[in-house]
Amino acid sequence: xxxxxxxxxxxxxxxxxxxxxxxxxxxxxxxxxxxxxxxxxxxxxxxxxxxxxxxxxxxxxxxxxxxxxxxxxxxxxxxxxxxxxxxxxxxxxxxxxxxxxxxxxxxxxxxxxxxxxxxxxxxxxxxxxxxxxxxxxxxxxxxxxxxxxxxxxxxxxxxxxxxxxxxxxxxxxxxxxxxxxxxxxxxxxxxxxxxxxxxxxxxxxxxxxxxxxxxxxxxxxxxxxxxxxxxxxxxxxxxxxxxxxxxxxxxxxxxxxxxxxxxxxxxxxxxxxxxxxxxxxxxxxxxxxxxxxxxxxxxxxxxxxxxxxxxxxxxxxxxxxxxxxxxxxxxxxxxxxxxxxxxxxxxxxxxxxxxxxxxxxxxxxxxxxxxxxxxxxxxxxxxxxxxxxxxxxxxxxxxxxxxxxxxxxxxxxxxxxxxxx
Length: 421
Ligand SMILES: Cc1cc2nc3c(=O)[nH]c(=O)nc-3n(C[C@H](O)[C@H](O)[C@H](O)COP(=O)(O)OP(=O)(O)OC[C@H]3O[C@@H](n4cnc5c(N)ncnc54)[C@H](O)[C@@H]3O)c2cc1C
Description:
Layout: E1 8-12, H1 16-27, E2 31-36, H2 44-47, E3 51-52, H3 69-74, E4 80-82, H4 87-100, H5 103-117, H6 120-131, E5 137-138, E6 142-146, H7 149-154, H8 156-164, E7 170-173, H9 174-180, E8 190-194, E9 198-200, H10 203-216, E10 220-223, E11 226-232, E12 235-241, E13 244-247, E14 250-253, H11 260-264, E15 273-282, E16 293-295, E17 300-305, E18 308-317, H12 326-339, E19 352-361, E20 368-371, E21 378-382, H13 388-404
Parallel strand pairs: 1-2, 1-14, 2-10, 4-18, 6-16, 14-21
Antiparallel strand pairs: 3-9, 5-9, 6-8, 7-8, 11-12, 12-13, 15-18, 15-19, 16-17, 17-18, 20-21
The protein binds flavin-adenine dinucleotide (FAD).
């Protein structure tokens, strides 16, 4: 229960982060309500790969990243691409991104991330069991597969960072890999299994079930777009929305990639960018991997979902406004067929669906998590980039700590909004 008395707390954004946060606040005795401008769970939380990877401590910007930028610009269908027309707009973010990828920097970032992502399944479990959503969450591990020993060697630092942060792995050669995952193409010669990881077989379904439990337990969902905060001195009086002011003792910004203007309304300027990602699903595939399987070179994951086989991933730096480049989703199918050779060479169009979503990303691959500079009553919880599903349960717990007045369970100094100066 709340140590400093129950508060009325508005949580802006009903994606995975917002719903987990509202749920943890409610469990702490607060009167939480969610404010959602669209459909709950239909942002980035809708179409991701569904992985709860506590091992995901490796930042996107790694040492030497600058050497890859020309390739991103010239290969629009590559695993990472950067649209020429967006280059001027993204240049400041890109510079920070490149600067973040020093050998010392990535070690600091990995150390900061591990306590946020490592306990993901433990922090999710109470919410899942209250919601009766156990059938949607599985702890079967995560497999990374490589087509050559050289490509595994290229990932050496990433595996070092995981090991340094207590992640245990099992390595497999080609024959062992075949036994572990018979669906995989024989082109793969190395595999690394992280047993501690889990996944959801329905990301949207999971958000919806957690939300339903939150509402059953007395939570509210307000359909409105938040655009600012009414302060009285340094205290929050109300959250301003397009349907009027909503009085609140505290507000939590969980609006994913759309959080920038809300932070700016309180004078905090954060370099938040979209790392656009795609998925392609086959509703009735001939085969599926048993567990989420990542093609390390292709930067995509094949996840067995309740509704079919999902290939998800890749990064496109092209901003919020540009229309999706569906060729990128189609590339996932080309690559997926190479990964799982038992898949048919063609599928009827009605069994294929595609999606594009916006990962909310800071240049150093760390979220913004902590109090605003204008008032202690507004807490930021956004910018989880590639690991938002995974980090959501612990993020919710930490926000509940802050609102209730307990010291946060982990060190959140690395996640400060003001870290970019
Ligand atoms: C292809 C792809 C694969 C991924 N795979 C994984 C994975 O396997 N594991 C993992 O951990 N992460 C993964 N991610 C990342 C993950 O999906 C995101 O980090 C996460 O979903 C972000 O959740 P969120 O709640 O912050 O944002 P969202 O899910 O985007 O939710 C934000 C919500 O806020 C609402 N909103 C915005 N502005 C306002 C406003 N002003 N007022 C009211 N409401 C507002 C939006 O409508 C939206 O519903 C992947 C992402 C992509 C694109």
